[in-house]
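Figure S4 source data
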Amino acid sequence: MTAPIEPATRILVRTTTIDGAALALAERLEQASGCPVALVIDARFGAPEASDQSVIALSRAVCRALGLYCPHDFAWKCGDYGYYLARRRFPHTQRFWMVESDVGFYGEAAELFRFFARHEDVDFLAAQLRRADYSWFWTETARARNAAPFRCLFPLTRLTARAIDAALARRRAHGRWPQRRLAWPNDEALVATTLMNGD
């Protein structure tokens, strides 16, 4: 018997609780995109460590096992950690969307997914992706001698598997440096800066 074919694209809903609103959003996104949806849930406050394929529990222990530094506010600050856990859970998926549970879609969400399905080779999609200047709170956490700081918005993003791997490698490298831990970048700074300065 052959193994089932893995879908090329998955959607992740980032949430703090499994409630009716999160489940309704997951169902709507699955219908609009035709892609399977998994919930990435903040497990720091007792969320179940579910074995269900549709739930990924974001906990300090699981993130540390991936070699990630976890400051006290990592589950809020580091939305990219959900991508790393999803990549481990679904290693054959080629690209992932992440949607925060309070994102609203006006009009047909299906049109968004249809449009970007024609651009599968794009490694990173995010709103307001641009160079970061000193007016942005997170700029200093993204600065480096060999990288220009970039910024974006993270409520709705899409990354390819190779982009996720690059961001994870950068997070692990940063975690080995005490000075980086003191000024730990958020998801918008780390992912945008890493990928826009990469290949």
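Figure S5 source data
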Amino acid sequence: MKLLSMTEIQPWWLRLVVLLVLSIPAFSGYPFDQVVLGLNEAFHINKDDAGLVVLAIPRLMYMALLWLVIFSSTGASKFQSYAMGATLLGLTTVIIGASVRKLLPFLSGGATEEEISLRMVMLFLNIITLIPFSLLAVNSFSVKNLLTKLTRLEGKYVELGFHLALALRVVQHAGEVVFSLHEIWREQHPSKFLPRHKPDWGSNWYSKINVLAWICHVALSWVHATMMYTFEPIPLMVSEIERISDSRE
């Protein structure tokens, strides 16, 4: 059940303003630092001694706010799809990042293990917060309505509008289908983070090399599949735009 759909906010520019206001903390960092400072003062914690929990609290609050907005707008089923997909992507990214830094310490730039752990946790929170919100944002605008309005307009910016509609539809399509990759992934890798057919990594000295090679293969396969899904709607959209352009002449 949808409590409040973002698409019901009219006119479209007001909907855009609401989305931009909600995204301010993600791009500016405000008021994360202020919340951490307030917690430090309330519990008499030295700024240099602020733990991971204190630093994560404002981002968890922000995540809860955006997840509530997404749930209210999309309903339980779509929200679950967004959240599960973002969580899988976040875990994959963080595990790969931590593994690479463990295997190749010079990539850490001299950071301590605590600093690396903090970075990975913050990265994970950012992914599971912003990926679902980004999907909500791009799906809050109708390509069909945009094309309908463009057919009634004249001027030099109409062509730019058509390109914008094409780009928006491609992004929407990628967001709709990319999480179906999770099902393909489960078929190939039932244990999630290990391949179906793997050598006996635990008993060989080159085990870490095998893991790194598999991680690289996984990343490339995921990128390739995502690209194929993303390009899929382009021919149909281009054909539709050409048809509309021809009808205007």
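The CA atoms of residues 179 and 243 lie 31 Å apart. The mean pLDDT is 78.
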